[in-house]
Amino acid sequence: MNTKHQFLFGATSFTRGSLPDFLRDFQNLPGVDESAFSSNTDALNSYRQNLEAFQLFVSEPHVSLRAIEKRTNLHTKQIYRLIERVMIKAPDGRIQGLRALIPYKHIKEYERVAAVPASSLLVGSAAAGAFTQLLKRFDDVEKWLRKAVKERNRPLREGEFREVNKSIRSMHSQFLRRCKAEGLQSGEYPLNQDMLGYRAFQAAVLRITREQSGGHRLADDHLQESGGTGEATRQWPVADTAFRIVQFDGHKIDVRITLVVPDPFGMETIIEIRRVWILVVKDVASRATLGYHLAVGPEYNKDDVAEALQAAIAPHKKVKLTIPGLAIKEGGGFPNEVMPELAYHRWNWFQFDSAKSHLAHDTLHRLTQVVDCWAISGRLGEPNDRAIIERFFGLLEECGLHQVPGSVGSGPSDKVRTLADVGQNLSMLMKLDELEQVAEVLIADLNGESHSGLGGRTPLEAMRYMTSKPEYLMQKLPLSRQHQLFLLKEAVIVTVRGKKLPHINFEGVRYTSDILACRPELVGRILRIYFMARDVRSVHAFFEDGAELGILQASRQWRTIPHSIRLRKEILRLHRLKKLKYSESDSPIEAYVKYKLEEAKQSKRAGNSVASVYSGVKAAEHDARTHANILGKSPLAEGDLPAADPPETASPEPRRRPPKQVAPIPLKLRKTILF
């Protein structure tokens, strides 16, 4: 056969003997489901006729064209046309394959040839294919349009200032100006239409947007433009064993919560809290919840994130259950509670979204320097990147939080909001301490529930199986990084002040100790201090060369009640504004609580402030009760005594060394911290 035909996307000439081998591999060609023709016998017979002709032509070169014509009743021109159709590129990027053999199937887009008349001359819809015809006529305009759509959907780069999500109407005006610049006349489409082709332009923008956003292509293009390869970024680590990847997020609890505050008359005052968050750390491979933290406030911050990190790594703190009948079921619990050997076990990858508290410097420092893990920041508005923990929050609501009185549901249209509405009867609402107990039991029970993604096993069973393998390597934090180190700030540089009594000033409060008070030669020296985020009653002081000075206590009025640095700043701010008044003998924290209790009668936000104080005091008291001396003894611990207020007249006498025959007096330490 001497005749040659153009068939491969209109570019490759062929003879019957030079067909590519992949055309003979019928199983790998895009196929057809013949059962779709069950109701149309003629179409089925026609398809089988085309298929037989194609197979004979491709795989049986010894069969002549005349024999194929006689056997299939197809003319030679029809056979060549079938081959051309098979090789045409499909919208999915592959060739049409056997799909092109379906009778009456359109495999080529409509191409308009005729000019488009003006709108006044049109009868019905007579402008089909006009916009595609216009883009093919002006290639530069089509390139501009695709680039403009891509820029419309691209996120801002760092330091970039431009219009985002530009309106289609604004883009349409630019489009018309570019068409005119290319030579488009006033009597031609779309200038001769009433709406200037706006609807066709709008449809084209949406179509191009879908094409460019397929398979997260927008995110990949953004990575490539910013210097990344995109390919490496998509290769997420695989959670093939426990503690390899953990996911973290915070979720607003959709329940109205109250706080019961005792008043001076021996009765109780009920105030409503505006918002409570639950922060969860969850292992991906075993689906086990490692730890959680309840944060009271309009938003949670980096200190709350630190609390959740500590709850996930340190031994689990049991919540005392006082609600009658409330108990953790058999098989439930938390990993490092059921398996104590997992206490202080670190993870390799920490996955979270791009919330500000997650990306805070202190949070990243704790993850990369203390836990020594990799941090994965997910994309904004993409909850599927952390599907496991997002689904967990849904289960938490379905299994309990949406079933209690006062639940507000997941949105205004949620029927739960109506069913659980108790109005202004605050006594019907769940209390904060009750929420702590319910959250403890719910999460512990979910750790003991069978999971379909684990073959019917529970998360705790999966965790025990994965960590008990002989080849599994325990990765515990070193002793120097354990315990409450997550809540420590970076070193703060201060100077020793004072003439009569040496001290330091930190966040508006004086700090000193018996050791510092007896060493006036230290005035003017630089110290490095560390402090706990949720309890700044004391700080740990070191000299510039790293030598330890000891524990410094705050002045008397700031020493009695545990409080966070945020709370102190708020109290001092209100005091400067003369909204909060207290004397030197009063406790500023007690004065603040009284002030907020008055506000709480009108504002839920004030109720959150009171709840934050009570939660902080409760947590600090729990630490003092269950973790006394948890970090070991300081070299100078025996000499650290609570600081005394400055004397009014005389300077303190130098400390004298006691005689050797006198036995030392044992001291009860409140808290000792080692670094």
Describe what you observe in this structure:
Helix content is 33%, strand content 12%. It is an alpha+beta fold and 675 residues long. The strands form four sheets. Strands 11-14-15-16-13-12 form a six-stranded antiparallel beta sheet. Strands 7-6-3-8-9 form a five-stranded mixed beta sheet, sandwiched between helices. The longest helix is centred in the C-terminal third of the chain and has 23 residues, at 604-626. The chain folds into four domains: 5-101, no CATH class; 126-231, no CATH class; 239-478, Nucleotidyltransferase, domain 5 (2-Layer Sandwich), CATH 3.30.420.10; 488-639, no CATH class. Strand 14 and strand 15 (538-543) form a beta hairpin. It has helices at 41-59, 65-72, 76-86, 130-137, 139-152, 168-181, 198-213, 217-225, 231-234, 302-313, 335-338, 361-371, 387-398, 415-419, 432-447, 459-467, 514-517, 565-576, 588-600, 604-626; strands at residues 5-6, 13-14, 245-252, 257-262, 268-273, 276-283, 289-296, 349-352, 374-377, 430-431, 492-495, 504-506, 509-512, 526-531, 538-543, 548-554.
Gap between N and C termini, in Å?
A: 88 Å
Radius of gyration: 37 Å
* CATH C-level name of the largest domain: Alpha Beta
Portion in strands: 5-15%
Q: What overall form do the CA principal axes indicate?
A: elongated
Strand order of the largest sheet: 11-14-15-16-13-12
In short:
This protein has 20 helices and 16 strands. By secondary structure, the protein is of the alpha+beta class. It has 4 domains: 97 residues, no CATH class; 106 residues, no CATH class; 240 residues, Ribonuclease H-like superfamily/Ribonuclease H (Nucleotidyltransferase, domain 5, 2-Layer Sandwich), CATH 3.30.420; 152 residues, no CATH class.
